[in-house]
Amino acid sequence: QGALSSCLRKPRRDPPSFFPAVSQASLVRLHHRFRALDSNKKGYLCRMDLQQIGALAVNPLGDRIIDSFFPDGSHSVDFRGFARVLAHFRPVEDEGTGTWDPEEPEPLNSRMNKLRFAFQLYDLDRDGKISRHEMLQVLRLMVGVQVTEEQLESIADRTVQEADEDGDGAVSFLEFAKTLEKMNIEQKMSIRILK
Amino acid sequence: GPGWGLLLALALVLGGLPRARGAEEPGAQGSIEGFQVVTFKWHHVQDPYIIALWILVASLAKIVFHLSHKVTSVVPESALLIVLGLALGGIVWAADHSASFTLTPTLFFFYLLPPIVLDAGYFMPNRLFFGNLGTILLYAVIGTVWNAATTGLSLYGVFLSGAMGDLNTGLLDFLLFGSLIAAVDPVAVLAVFEEVHVNEVLFIIVFGESLLNDAVTVVLYNVFESFVTLGGDNVTGVDCVKGIVSFFVVSLGGTLVGVIFAFLLSLVTRFTKHVRIIEPGFVFVISYLSYLTSEMLSLSAILAITFCGICCQKYVTANISEQSATTVRYTMKMLASGAETIIFMFLGISAVDPLIWTWNTAFVLLTLVFISVYRAIGVVLQTWVLNRYRMVQLEIIDQVVMSYGGLRGAVAYALVVLLDKNKVKEKNLFVSTTIIVVFFTVIFQGLTIKPLVQWLKVKRSEHREPKLNEKLHGRAFDHILSAIEDISGQIGHNYLRDKWSNFDRKFLSKVLMRRSAQKSRDRILNVFHELNLKDAISYVAEGERRGSLAFIRSPSTDNIVNVDFSTPRPSTVEASVSYLLRENVSAVCLDMQSLEQRRRSIRDTEDMVTHHTLQQYLYKPRQEYKHLYSRHELTPSEDEKQDKEIFHRTMRKRLESFKSAKLGINQNKKAAKLYKRERGQKRRNSSVPNGKLPVENPVHNFTIEERDLEFSDPEEMHIYQVEEMTGGIEFLAKVPQDTAIDSTAGIDNPVFSPDEDLGVLSRVPPWLSPEETVVPSQRARVQIPGSPGNFRRLTPIRLSTKSADSFLLADGDPAEARRPGPPESTHM
To answer: What are the recorded GO MF terms, alphabetically (chain A) (predicted)?
Structure first.
């Protein structure tokens, strides 16, 4: 209980990017969820806790998403980190697209940050580029076993080629964002409850 | 086709039968002379014969409809059946000049409706249903009352204005009519919604509403009928209060009857071990009894049998044998599907009877307008209220579908036929109007709802060829989003359900489930467990044999060979054309649309192939593929296949990450030695941090060691088991558990308490019922201690619940692993 109230008090003092205006109710809910996931009341989550969620084991990208909760090789994530990752999926308020103060960092749920989140799921070696190999790995995850390895490679090649503008054989973040510019990321990468 | 000819012939036979009977009877009486070798005794078999023939006709009709996919994909089957019924009715009428066959209320309520509702209850996606129960109840209760009241009052208002001409009715008659026409029909709604792919929440709301509004309909109908009998002037305020009270009695009473019978049924199936062959019978007989009992007590029979099905499903499936479970499933589907077919056909046939037709254009048209408009208004108003409380908002498109999906059906028809002509003077007008309303909603709305949904969805998306990147990443985003939903617990994780599952595990399952069933678990998962275990075991064994674990570094394909990990390889059958076709047919309509678009704009065939491959084989996100409930289909195998594949892959990767972590220690002999030395040091002085291993936090490492030590003592182990541990080798298999057991995690850790608390297990695959625990098979558990490489040692480390990496570090050395006996015990 104490942890919760401290978490709830913090947003006012912290830089807004830490608890990016996740509403109080959502925060309480998330904290409930956090404690539910925290199987032995450690106060933080480790990979095992998230791997226990059954639906993630049948989600092709499940483990990659779990990994995204543990950046830079860390082995635990506290509530703040947990909420911070989830904050990427807040819906973008219609009216508020340009309202955030330019002094402040861009909100986590902005289009670019949503894209960045997805991008880093692909970019395993963190070099800022999705190489052909990384693309292939994602494809292997997402495509059924019926498709042969050669087909996958050809698809990976084509996908990279299609997005690659500077001809370096890899997709940079800008290229990634450009190729998806027509897509309604704001809607596709938002969960309504995380207001 | 040829089928039509057959059907017509049959119909002619049916039409001709009554006349044949009439012609043959005097002859039968006249021929009493002597013994006859063969006699024609039509009247002897007449009734069952006709029934059987009708069932045959209806079933043949279904075959005929499904000969052409084009027709059934556009026109809902229910509409086709009504049209067929009209045609057959016409033939019968032409032959007989009397409506010999109609849908009588007795036939409908006692024989045709129960299987359909039982099926709905038995296959109800419970989680979703109870997750949205509040919403469903609001629509079912308030919505239905609203519809009944507004429709009845508006019609009465128009009647007063004189637009309907002269009718022998009063306010109460209109309200009675309003109440029977107000309810959305479970049969019709499902018949149509099954073919429209809407999201699961929307589906369950409309479906649940159509089932639960029965209580309201029954009460309103009974109340207004008795008011009509009493006469408008004699109705007092007390009667109105009684009506409201009776609503609660009827609905709660019906539910209670259902629950009691479900309890009985579950209990009975617990003891059917030696009479397996009649096991399935119990399910049907006892459920049917719940229906009849509540009908006898004038409670809501539909609610009773629905809840009987909902409550018993878990225990019954766990108790009865697998064959019996299959029998129950198939029989239930067969009965429900058959009953539905007959209902719609007979609705058509019943309409062909000039005696019941009374036309009043204003009344009929206004009824149609009012029920549509008021349903829409009701839905919008209620949704507006609901959206303030709901986590998952209902959007405009959902509301349109809900309003438009409010189909009326046979329940309304049967109720209106039940009316007493002496009390309700305009019964015939009501009957004809109801028929028109049913036909209009089932045929016209059923026909147009699919295009409407498509149009509404497509309207939002741009008409343009999606790029490969967009296709791939778009799908990835879908998966990411559903993973985030699972992590953030959007899919209804709540307190009440936790409480309930605790209660269920502790008490209900113990009483209602066989002891063997309490331990039985999903077969498919067992296979996975065994595979994973085998993999892990042979991996360690192999490592020992070679003296190093370097082979793990070889490419993944080699790896598979080495460790005998049998990946499901694509079989030739799956890749065949028929397989592709099947995929195509089952694909959601929107996919088809995009296929079309692509065909137009594609440049070269190779591109086409690439796009096609992606389109076809990209895993589908959850919402798109998960069928909830279908009256006509069992077990969506495609989805299971996808789940299996991904599950397998995930597990293998988790295992591999565990291996590579292990390898990280052994790849460098020097580092390993160093590590060993440090470990040795640590044993002596447990405060020396292990700085040489970048993967692991020294503090963690230390904790593990500590725990290792403690675990060498069995009593300590017990403490841990109760305290917190999740694990053992289970990590490999421990998938599901949607943390519903958060508060109790560890207590029911099955690895350590094999005889306890396995009651929640059922044969449902873990991804379908995520709240249930999955444990390794008995065999696997037995194997663990005796397995090569001293596998038991994995257990304590697992228990540390730190991470895969940490667990490997602790028993990283194969040389050490060979040493028998409890590890680290020297150190005490």
So the answer is: calcium ion binding
Is A57 in contact with B767 (Cβ distance < 8 A)?
yes
**Integer angstrom CA distances of residue B232 from B181, B224, B315:** 21, 10, 49
| Tokens 């007008």 -> residue | B429
Q: Does A35 touch chain B (CB under 8 A)?
A: yes
Topology (CATH) of B105-459:
Na+/H+ antiporter like fold (1.20.1530)
Tell me the helix, strand and coil percentages in chain B, rounded to 5. Answer: 75, 0, 25
Cβ separation A36–B464 shorter than 8 A: no
Q: Between chains, do A191 and B485 touch, taking CB under 8 Å as contact? A: yes
Of B392, B483, B488, the CB nearest to A62: B483
DSSP state of B112: I
Most confident of A36-45, B137-146, B576-585, B653-662: B137-146
> CA B789 to CA B818: how far, in whole Å?
6
Question: What is the distance between the alpha carbons of residues B337 and B139, in angstroms, rounded to a whole number?
Answer: 26
The verdict on a CB contact (< 8 Å) between B803 and A47 is yes
Choose the closest CB to B472 out of A36, A59, A159: A159
Asked if residue B132 lies in contact with residue B204, where contact means CB atoms within 8 angstroms, the answer is yes
Cα distance from A126 to chain B (closest Cα, Å)?
Answer: 17
Q: For residues A113 and A85, is the Cβ–Cβ distance under 8 A?
A: no
Average pLDDT over residues B62-83: 85
Q: DSSP letters along B744-783, please?
A: GTTTT-TTT-TTSS-TT--SS-TTTSTTS-----HHHHHH
> Which B residues, 766 through 805, put their C-beta within 8 Å of a C-beta on chain A?
766-767, 770, 774, 801-805
User: With contact defined as beta carbons under 8 Å apart, do B700 and B802 qualify?
Assistant: yes
Q: Do A52 and B483 touch (CB under 8 A)?
A: no
Each residue's pLDDT tens digit, A7-46: 444 444 344 444 545 667 778 878 888 888 887 788 888 8
Specify the DSSP element, H or E, that contains A172.
strand A170-172
Does the pLDDT value for residue B130 go beyond 60?
yes
What is the distance between the alpha carbons of residues A66 and B106, in angstroms, rounded to a whole number?
57
Would you call A145 and B645 a contact, using CB atoms and an 8 Å cutoff? Answer: yes
**Contact residues, chain B, for A65 at CB < 8 Å:** 480, 483-484, 487
pLDDT at B451 (0 to 100): 85
Q: Which of B469, B575, B802 sits opposite A180 (nearest CB)?
A: B469
| B693: chain A residues, CB-CB within 8 Å | none
Could you tell me if B501 lies within 8 Å of chain A, comparing CB atoms?
no
Query: Domain A1-87, what fold?
Result: Recoverin; domain 1 (1.10.238)
Q: Do B470 and A63 touch (CB under 8 A)?
A: no
Instruction: Tell me how crowded residue B187 is: count the other CB atoms within 10 A of its CB.
Output: 27
User: Under a CB-based contact definition with an 8 Å cutoff, are residues B776 and B524 in contact?
Assistant: no
Cβ-based neighbours of B740, under 8 Å, separated by 6 or more: B493, B497, B498, B501, B770, B771
Contact in structure between A37 and A45 (CB atoms under 8 Å):
yes
Residues of A in contact with B766 (CB under 8 A): 54, 57
Q: Within an 8 Å CB–CB cutoff, is residue A185 touching chain B?
A: yes
Q: Do B726 and A50 touch (CB under 8 A)?
A: no
Does residue B108 contact residue B343 with C-beta atoms inside 8 Å?
yes
Characterize the bridge pairing of strands A129-131 and A170-172: antiparallel
**Collapsed DSSP state (helix, strand, coil) of residue B628:** coil
Question: What's the pLDDT tens digit per position in B413-464?
Answer: 999 998 888 888 888 889 999 999 999 999 998 888 888 887 877 554 444 5
Domain A107-190: give its CATH code: 1.10.238.10
| Prediction pTM value | 0.60
Sketch the domain layout of chain A as residue ranges: 1-87, 107-190
Query: Which residue of A37, A52, A158 is in closest CB contact with B610?
Result: A158
